[in-house]
Design goal:
This protein has two domains: 3-146, Fructose-1,6-Bisphosphatase, subunit A, domain 1 (Fructose-1,6-Bisphosphatase, Chain A, domain 1), CATH 3.30.540; 155-259, 3-Layer(aba) Sandwich (D-Maltodextrin-Binding Protein, domain 2). The protein has a seven-stranded mixed sheet, with helices on both faces. It has a five-stranded mixed sheet with strand order 11-10-12-14-13, sandwiched between helices. The protein has a two-stranded antiparallel ribbon with strand order 1-2. The chain is 37% helix and 26% strand. By secondary structure, the chain is of the alpha+beta class.
C-alpha cells in the first residue's frame, strides 16, 4: 500500500472515530445524573455503570456499520476479532467515577489501528460538546481546527494534571510523588479523565500530565492527539514503571526526572 493511500485511509478512520465518538457522547450526556453501578473490577473503587456497557455496545455497532470486519478491543466487553487489518480501541466512558457522581469531566475515547499501530483517533468531551481528533503524521484538531501545546519552558510555571490508580499501595506511592512535585510546579490538578488530560496538553489547557497504571484504552486516542499536536509523549513500559507522560517540550525532561527518580 502506498504511503499516500495509507494516509488517506487513516484520515478516513479519524472521521469515523469523530462521528462515532460524537454519537456515543450524546448517548452518555442524556444519561448524566442517572448513573447506576453495575459491578466493580480491580477494586471496590473501580466501578462500572450500566451506561458504560450500553455505550460500548453502541460504539461497537456504529463502528462495524461503518467499517465491517474490524477488530474491536474495549474496556468493558469481550474482544471482537475481525477479518481485516483495521482495529479499534474503545473506552466508552473515560471518567466513570465522575459520571457516577455527575461531575462534568467525562469523555468517550476511540482509537483506530492499522496492522496493530494506532493511526487515528478521537476523544469526545461529553459535557463541553468538544471533539479532539488526530491522524498519525497529519496533526491534531479540535472541532477540525489545528491545535498545539503551550511553549512553556520551565516546570516552575507548569500546570500539571495527574490521576490515581485503584490499587491502594500504588496510591500511597503516588501521594509521595506529589510531595516532591507540588513545590516545584505552578499547581496540580486531578480531574478524572486520562483521555481529556492528554488532549488538554495537546491544546494548551495543561502544560503536562502524568499517570501510572493506565490501560491502552485509556490513552490510545488521547496520546495520539497530544503527540500529533506537538507535545512530548512517553507511554507505559517496563523501563519507566508503567508511566504515561505528556508535556510541552520545555518541561518534559525536568518533569520526567522527578517522576522516575530512584526514590520513587
Amino acid at each position: 500500500m502506498s504511503e499516500g493511500h495509507q494516509s488517506d485511509r487513516a484520515r478516513h478512520l479519524e472521521d469515523v472515530a469523530v462521528e462515532v465518538a460524537s454519537v456515543a457522547a450524546d448517548y452518555v450526556r442524556v444519561r448524566s445524573g442517572q448513573a447506576t453501578a453495575a459491578r466493580t473490577k480491580s477494586s471496590p473503587t473501580d466501578v462500572v455503570t450500566h451506561t458504560d456497557m450500553e455505550c460500548e455496545q453502541l460504539i461497537r455497532s456504529e463502528l462495524l456499520a461503518r467499517c465491517p470486519g474490524s477488530s474491536i478491543v474495549g474496556e468493558e466487553l469481550d474482544d471482537d476479532d475481525g477479518g481485516n487489518n483495521v482495529g479499534w480501541i474503545v473506552d466508552p466512558i473515560d471518567g466513570t467515577v465522575n459520571f457516577l457522581y455527575d461531575l462534568p469531566v467525562v469523555s468517550v475515547s476511540i482509537a483506530a489501528t492499522i496492522d496493530g499501530e494506532v493511526m487515528a483517533g478521537a476523544v469526545a468531551d461529553v459535557h463541553r460538546d468538544e471533539v479532539f481528533s488526530a491522524t498519525r503524521d497529519l496533526g491534531a484538531r479540535l472541532a477540525g481546527k489545528p491545535i498545539s501545546p503551550t511553549e512553556l519552558a520551565d516546570l516552575d510555571g507548569a500546570l500539571v494534571a495527574t490521576g490515581f490508580a485503584y490499587d491502594a499501595g500504588l496510591r500511597a506511592t503516588q501521594a509521595q510523588m506529589l510531595t516532591r512535585l507540588l513545590p516545584v510546579c505552578r499547581d496540580i490538578r486531578c480531574m478524572g479523565s486520562a483521555a481529556l488530560n492528554l488532549c488538554w496538553v495537546g491544546c494548551g489547557r495543561l502544560d503536562a500530565y502524568f499517570e501510572r497504571d493506565l490501560k491502552m484504552y485509556d490513552y490510545a486516542a488521547g496520546a495520539l492527539v497530544a503527540s500529533e499536536a506537538g507535545a512530548n509523549i512517553e507511554l507505559p513500559s517496563t523501563t519507566d514503571r508503567n508511566l504515561t507522560i505528556a508535556a510541552t517540550g520545555g518541561v518534559f525532561d525536568s518533569l520526567r526526572a522527578i517522576l522516575v527518580s530512584p526514590s520513587d
